[in-house]
Each structure stands twice: as C-alpha cells, then as structure tokens.
Design goal:
This protein has 489 residues and is of the alpha/beta class. The chain has a domain of 217 residues: Periplasmic binding protein-like II (D-Maltodextrin-Binding Protein, domain 2). 39% of the residues lie in helices and 11% in strands. It has 19 helices and 10 strands. Strands 1, 2, 3, 4, 5, 6, 7, 8, 9 and 10 form a 10-stranded mixed sheet that branches. The N terminus is likely disordered.
Length: 489
C-alpha cells in the first residue's frame, strides 16, 4: 500500500498505510480463491525453520560515526519497490552508505514483483537486508509480523539521528510514524518512509473555469459535478481496475461524518461496524455519483495510470488518490494544471468532524528481515535516508514528504506538495489513519476494494448490498484463525 501505493503509497502503498496502490494487481480468476497466495505464504513462513544464522555478518564496533555497529566490510543488499517514486532517491542514499563504508559494495535492485521475488528467499532463510515492501505484490505485513519474520527496528529508532547526535532518530519523525510500524504495541517492525496525503485531487484551473469552489457538503459536490457535466467534463474518475483507491477519499469521509471511532471499529473487525449510519450515508453519496452520470464513462475498465491520464487531460474533475500522483503523472499533468488536493467533502453540518479532516499517514513500508545477513547495515541505510539531506532529496525528486519531520525548508515545493502541506495545516489534529490496508491487505484490496466498492461504483450492486457483502468479508476475516488480528490500542 502508499500503503502503503501506495503505491501508498504510500504507497500502495499500501501506505499503507499506503500507501500496493501504484502497481498492477494480480487478480485471482475467482475472487474466492484470493486467499491462496496469502495462505501459501503463511504456510511457507511457518515451515521456514531455523534458517542459516551462521551466515550472519558479525556486528562491527559501535562508534559515534557508526552508532549501530555496522560491519564495515560486510556486504549489504537492498531491494526497492519500483513504483511511482522511482529508484533515484534510494540509489542516492546507497552512494552515501558506500562512501561511509568504502570497503562495501551495496547490492541494490528494484522490482515491481516484491512477493514473488522475495517470498522464496524468506522461506529459504536468505532474505535481503532491507526491503521496500510495497506495490500490488506487497508481502502481507500481518503475516510477516505474526510469523516473526521481521527484525525489531527499535535499535534504529533509539540510535542518534544522522544530523544531530543529541537527537534520537525517533525524535526526528512525523507524528504517527512510529505507531504505524507497531502491531499491538511494541516493538516497531516497519519504517514507513514516505508521508502520504490522501484525498480528492483536482486541477484548481479546472475548478476556476467552472466558477466553483471546492465543495464542502455533498449537495455542493453534486452541484459542482452538474456544472462540470454541462461543460462536457465528468465529475469523477478513479482506478476502476483497482478500486481500492476509492477509500483514499471515502474512508476519511466516513470518519468525518461519523467520527474516528467508526473507522477504528472497522479496523478492529467489530461485528456490524460496516452497518454504522455514517458508512451508509457515505456509500449512498458515492453511489449517487454513479446514478447521476457524474463518473467518467468507461472508468470501471481503467487502471490507475489510465484514470490518472484521463483526469490530467481534463476529462474528469476529481480523482481519489495519494500524494504520489504528482510524480507518477508528471509526464501527463499540464504545466498550468495547478494541482491541488482537498480533504473529502462531507454530507452536511451534522458531520461529527470539521471540514479539513483528512487521511495522512506513512507510505512505502521499509522492513529489515529477522534473518537478514546484515541487519545493522539495513538499519544504517534507513538512518541515512532519514537525514535532512536525503529527505530533501526525496521531496525534491519525487514531490512527496518523508517521515522526517521537516525537510521542506529551502526547497521550492511543487503545486501538489504545497497544497498537501496546506491541507495538513488545515487538518491540524483532525488527521485520520485507517489501518485496514496494512493490517489486512487481502481484505482491503480484493474484497472491500474489488468485490465491494468496485462493483457498487460500476452500478452492479446497491449500497445496501455492498455493505452486507463487505460486512460478510470482515466477519470472515475476524473468524479466520489463520491470520493474526490487530486492534487499536
């Protein structure tokens, strides 16, 4: 997912948090079979045995310059998800690692097929030292944690930060990042590197051409979409083939309407959580977009790139997405587009949370496997990436914020990034972080996304039918003893 894109992104992301959200999903021929890859991964992890711990690199001497005690001659392997953020930011950070440890050559590679490439290596006990576990083939975090496949990142978080030895790494991170990497409290298993703002993305120029402001209530939303329709422009489009993008604006809308406890209940797989009136109100609202003909024709058949391209070309006004969209669609977004993001439109003044309530969270989940040969090296690479310089480099190159709380001073921000920072400022404390996309990847993507929301938005199921179906999926996940369950603390 972020992110987890997705993608989060994100980040999924997934990022799911983000951000498995930016790459093609390998759909099962029958949705009922979707648990098969997860199950094979589960059983494979369970049977992976003791592994070859004898091949671990000996830890080096801890010094002020080497606080994690990296072995200065041991190789380090880093596998990156090759998605919307590209490879360059990571390759730049690898160069710093190699400069700091001149006897070491880092083995760096990037792939979109994270699970199919790396799952066999986890099973054999020979995983890389650092992985960006993102994209449609993201390995299920809940499974990895549940089967003790990941290293605890507390040593990294408690190490002196790269820029200031008097400040721990954990004290340089954005709010919520450490908690996102936890499952049921301590320890921390995942370092989400990107910081993704999710919401409704649009061209300010297009909105201005309609003589309209961003709508705060659903009646206003329908009025803006009607204006757009009269000008030959659809109100909305989305990644129809991967409809788990829809929650990027729908989930925070549910939280805005019903309060964050509604999203917590959904994350906790509580009985009847999906039957809350706020869920029904928001599903009905989105379904109205379909019923009134405000969705770009053909959207259910579009993937993320095709829908983003149609939107960038002015065929649709709004698209639910994460902040990686600015970089991923840079080659099709016109220079005068004036990209902007908004928190989701609500229903009306009875909503529990104010306008501006937004979903923002870590994307691009980085992990260090428990059986990595050089876990200190993997963590040191992350420590370098969480420096101010590496953070600024990422933000400059890929138009996204990082987990490092800062890194925007002295660099010129792109329109989307400027808008994202403004949206975070407007939100203040009203930032939501639904966890389904990193706790229950299959449930979120294939069941809620494809089988649930995808069918509803294509007009093949009513909101009532969709809620019943999704509640059934959630109940089945809650009863499934083969998956580890998580709850908000």
């Amino acid at each position: 997912m972020g992110s987890t894109h997705t993608e989060s992104n994100g980040t999924d992301d997934r990022d799911m948090t983000g951000v498995g959200r930016r790459d093609l999903i390998k759909r099962s021929a029958a949705l009922g079979l979707i648990s098969v890859p997860t199950m094979s991964f589960l059983s494979a992890c369970a049977s992976s045995g003791g592994g070859d711990n004898g091949s671990k690199a000996k830890a080096g001497k801890k010094t002020a310059k080497n606080p994690l005690g990296v072995n200065e001659t041991a190789g380090m392997e880093f596998v990156l998800f090759d998605g919307g953020f590209g490879k360059e930011y990571a390759q730049d950070a690898v160069k710093i690692y190699e400069k700091n440890f001149p006897k070491v050559k880092v083995k760096f590679s990037a792939t979109q097929k994270i699970q199919s490439t790396l799952q066999p290596r986890f099973n054999q006990g020979t995983p890389p030292d650092l992985i960006d576990n993102s994209g449609a083939e993201q390995m299920d975090m809940g499974v990895l944690v549940g089967k003790n496949q990941l290293a605890d990142l507390t040593p990294l978080l408690d190490a002196p930060s790269y820029d200031d030895p008097n400040k721990k790494v954990r004290d340089t991170l954005r709010p919520g990042i450490v908690e996102m990497g936890q499952f049921d409290g301590n320890p921390v298993w995942i370092m989400y590197y990107a910081y993704t703002v999710y919401g409704v993305w649009y061209s300010q120029k297009a909105l201005d051409s309609l003589d309209a402001e961003y709508p705060k209530t659903w009646d206003e939303m329908l009025a803006v979409c009607e204006k757009a329709k009269k000008k030959g422009m659809a109100g909305w489009t989305y990644a129809g083939k991967y409809p788990y993008y829809i929650p990027f604006s729908l989930y925070p809308m549910i939280g805005k309407v019903g309060g964050r406890e509604v999203l917590d209940a959904i994350d906790n797989l509580e009985p009847n959580a999906w039957k809350h009136p706020a869920v029904k109100a928001c599903f009905d609202a989105y379904y109205e977009l379909y019923k009134k003909g405000y969705i770009l024709q053909g959207t259910p058949g579009l993937d993320h790139i095709q829908s983003q391209t149609a939107w960038a070309k002015g065929k649709a006004l709004f698209i639910p997405n994460g902040s990686w969209v600015e970089n991923e669609s840079a080659n099709v977004i016109p220079s005068d587009f004036n990209l902007a993001v908004s928190a989701p439109t609500g229903i009306d003044s009875s909503d529990k949370m104010p306008f501006g309530t937004i979903w923002a969270s870590g994307g691009e989940p980085f992990i260090v496997p428990a059986k990595a040969k050089n876990p200190e090296g993997g963590m040191e690479q992350l420590r370098i990436m969480l420096s101010e310089a590496s953070s600024k480099n990422f933000t400059t190159k890929v138009k996204s914020l990082t987990a490092y709380n800062g890194g925007t001073t002295g660099i010129s921000l792109t329109p989307g990034l400027t808008s994202g920072v403004a949206a975070l400022k407007l939100a203040g404390q009203n930032v939501l972080n639904p966890r389904l996309q990193d706790w229950y990847v299959q449930l979120q993507k294939e069941q809620i996304g494809v089988a649930g929301l995808g069918e509803m938005m294509a007009g093949r199921a009513t909101p009532a039918e969709t809620i019943k179906k999704i509640q059934g999926f959630a109940d089945a996940a809650a009863k499934d003893t083969s998956i580890k369950h998580y709850k908000h603390q």
